[in-house]
């Protein structure tokens, strides 16, 4: 059942609105002024608040601003007998869902309330989903090397600095990029990922910058590239050490000028992206070998984060295994399983050349193949 609150200093208005809304099946509370209304909204999880504009102690606009600052999912519908177009515009600019004149038209009121409830539920679901995704992307571990990685992420996430993430395959470079994005000011904007190693060199420029219709054989329609898709958000260039030199030159120009040109086009398109790059290669050696541009390296490596291999953080294996057991059980809709102490000790002794990715694959195999408690014999059989 949707939960609403009416904030108005006129008891007759509160009573009339309450009768209407309770008849529609909503749970309704009342507040006699702005101060009481704000306190109740911040303390409870209301879907919608019907809030008068002119009230003692706190005006409706002051209530609106404080609720918005608190990032509550509650949708405020402002109501007033003295409203103007300017007031309505200002209210919606400040985050109000809608503005309704007194006395309200009954049909419009009910439709607005219904739509506001849907929006409140959608916002709450989005918030819950983001928390779940954030937890999936959580970097797990308490070893000194991983603490250093987490500390660096926390320091750079709120900035616009470009970041170069280095580390072996499967060590968690993508997780670092996602954490930087999710903790930064662009978190509500897109995170676009490009695996430079998986795209043929002749197609990488089209993938990154897009192309115009007829730019080359097979270009039947215009295509928007990853830089444009990431506008306002973050572009993650994974395995950038595998990018062709010609594409590197265009990426460098895009970073220098915040502009791109589609393949086959001549129009410059402004883009605003934060670039995070990752590689499993030694880019300094690649520069010496003539495979990577030194000027691009310096553009990308304002901040460098090295993700250690799992063999250098064996103390984290029990924590990682526990997280994977829980995540996989949730994914399969099954109760989580447990590893025996000697099974965990054996996992810590393995070489883990495939790093964290290999460990997760092993845990998934054990979850599928073993009973409630995973023994040392199980691990030896399936690891």
TrEMBL record:
Keywords per UniProt: ATP-binding, Nucleotide-binding, Phosphoprotein
Q: Entry's Pfam families?
A: AAA_lid_14, Response_reg, Sigma54_activat
Q: Output the Gene Ontology terms for molecular function.
A: ATP binding
The residue ranges of the Response regulatory domain are 3-117
- Indicate where the modification 4-aspartylphosphate is found in the sequence: 52
Q: Does the keyword ATP-binding belong to this entry?
A: yes
Superkingdom of this entry's organism? Bacteria
The alphabetized list of GO BP terms reads:
phosphorelay signal transduction system; regulation of DNA-templated transcription
Q: What is this protein called?
A: Sigma-54-dependent Fis family transcriptional regulator
Q: Which SUPFAM superfamilies match?
A: CheY-like, P-loop containing nucleoside triphosphate hydrolases
Sigma-54 factor interaction domain sequence ranges: 139-368
What species was this sequence derived from?
Spirosoma profusum
């Amino acid at each position: 059942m949707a939960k609403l609150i009416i904030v108005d200093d006129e008891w007759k208005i509160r009573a009339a609105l309450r009768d209407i809304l309770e008849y529609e099946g909503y749970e309704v509370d009342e507040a006699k002024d702005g101060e009481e209304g704000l306190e109740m909204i911040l303390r409870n999880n209301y879907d919608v608040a019907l809030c008068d504009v002119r009230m003692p102690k706190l005006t409706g606009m002051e209530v609106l601003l404080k609720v918005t600052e608190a990032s509550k999912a509650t949708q405020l519908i402002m109501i007033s007998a003295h409203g103007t177009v300017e007031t309505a515009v200002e209210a919606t600019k400040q985050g109000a869902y809608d503005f309704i004149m007194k006395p309200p038209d009954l049909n419009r009121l009910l439709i607005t309330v219904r739509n506001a409830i849907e929006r409140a539920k959608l916002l709450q679901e989005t918030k819950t989903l983001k928390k779940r995704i954030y937890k999936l992307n959580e970097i797990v571990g308490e070893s000194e090397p991983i603490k250093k990685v987490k500390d660096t992420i926390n320091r750079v996430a709120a900035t616009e600095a470009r970041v170069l993430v280095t580390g072996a395959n499967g060590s968690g470079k993508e997780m670092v990029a996602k954490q930087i994005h999710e903790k930064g000011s662009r978190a509500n904007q897109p995170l676009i990922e490009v695996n430079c190693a998986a795209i043929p060199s002749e197609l990488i420029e089209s993938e990154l910058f897009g192309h115009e219709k007829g730019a080359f054989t097979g270009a039947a329609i215009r295509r928007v590239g990853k830089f444009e898709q990431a506008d306002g958000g973050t572009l993650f260039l994974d395995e950038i050490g595998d990018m062709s030199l010609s594409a590197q030159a265009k990426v460098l120009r895009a970073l220098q000028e915040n502009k791109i040109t589609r393949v086959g086009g001549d129009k410059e398109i402004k883009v605003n992206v934060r670039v995070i790059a990752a590689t499993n290669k030694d880019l300094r050696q690649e520069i010496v070998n003539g495979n990577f541009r030194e000027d691009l390296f310096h553009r990308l490596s304002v901040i460098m984060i090295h993700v250690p291999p799992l063999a250098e953080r064996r103390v984290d294996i029990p924590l990682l295994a526990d997280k994977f057991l829980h995540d996989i059980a949730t994914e399969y809709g099954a109760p989580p399983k447990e590893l025996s102490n000697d099974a965990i000790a054996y996992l810590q002794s393995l070489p883990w050349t495939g790093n964290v990715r290999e460990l997760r694959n092993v845990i998934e195999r054990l979850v599928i193949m073993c009973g409630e408690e995973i023994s040392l014999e199980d691990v030896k059989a399936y690891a």
